[in-house]
Design goal:
By secondary structure, chain A is mainly α. Chain A has helices at 33-64, 66-76, 79-102, 119-141. In chain B, 82% of the residues lie in helices and 0% in strands. The chains are: A mainly alpha, B mainly alpha.
């Protein structure tokens, strides 16, 4: 009869005579260079969360009319907002570069009869898309096009 | 609570993955213009005046882009902040912190849909 698997199924009923120490995370784990970069990547989550909430304010300001929109842009010129948005820009670039570097490694070896393109091709496509979308947004929001 | 999070894991991962990919593709252009360029007067006159910004963001594509800029970073942010909390604080508070963060992302996404529809 099939039943859900039990992660403790292979645990002996009585503890063995050889004692093993429970796994411990070293206190200084965050000082390791790879771990630091990984934690920094995770920490961009806080910035992204705040970016999403501020973007919600942008949408409500557009729905609120010209005075609300102008007040929002004036508030964005305050030092606190400028520092935050520069940090958000750095975070977005950091996330993009790291994610695109990992992207080819995360692809399956084969999807049916098709193999994924070589990493260099994937990188080129990702960076071309990133650059292209950024240029289009700069042109549209920057008043150049259409 | 933990069991509920595990049940929604595929949806959370879908939104988190979209948040990393689409959010990151859109954010530099948005941040350089809407949140930095226009307020600091770095864009041409009237580039993001209310009339022009309203015209851009009230179009179907504009609404979709703005919704992506609101909702997807929320899900990426919630999931990565949860992972950071697990790394720094351990697993004992994961269910509470994870639920709280995903609730913020879910409520923010719903408010985002209402906001872009109200433009």
């Amino acid at each position: 009869m099939a039943r859900p698997s039990d992660p403790q199924a292979m645990t002996p009923r009585k503890p063995g005579s050889t004692r093993t120490a429970p796994p411990q995370v070293p206190d200084d784990f965050w000082t390791q260079p790879r771990m630091r970069t990984y934690l920094l990547f995770d920490a961009t989550g806080i910035v992204y969360l705040l970016v999403g909430l501020v973007a919600l304010r942008v949408a409500w300001a557009l729905a609120g009319g010209a005075p609300v929109w102008d007040a929002l842009l004036r508030s964005f010129a305050s030092p606190g907002y400028v520092i935050f948005h520069v940090l958000a820009l750095i975070s977005a670039i950091f996330v993009g570069v790291r994610f695109f570097r990992l992207f080819p490694k995360a692809q399956p070896a084969q999807i049916g009869p098709v193999k994924p393109p070589p990493p260099a091709v994937l990188h080129a496509v990702l960076y071309a898309a990133w650059g292209g979308i950024t240029l289009v947004l700069l042109a549209v929001f920057g008043g150049i096009w259409p | 609570m933990k069991a509920l999070l595990l049940r929604f894991e595929p949806i959370i991962w879908l939104l988190f993955g979209a948040g990393i990919m689409v959010g990151t593709l859109l954010l530099p252009g948005y941040l350089m213009t809407v949140t930095l360029g226009a307020p600091l007067g770095l864009l041409p006159e009237g580039a993001l005046s209310f009339a022009r910004a309203h015209m851009i963001f009230s179009s179907p594509l504009g609404r979709l882009v703005l919704l992506a800029i609101i909702a997807l970073p929320l899900w990426k942010g919630a999931h990565h902040t949860r992972a950071l909390a697990v790394d720094m604080l351990g697993h004992h508070s994961d269910a509470l912190i994870g639920s709280l963060l995903y609730a913020i992302a879910a409520i923010g996404s719903v408010l985002g849909i209402l906001a872009v529809l109200a433009i």
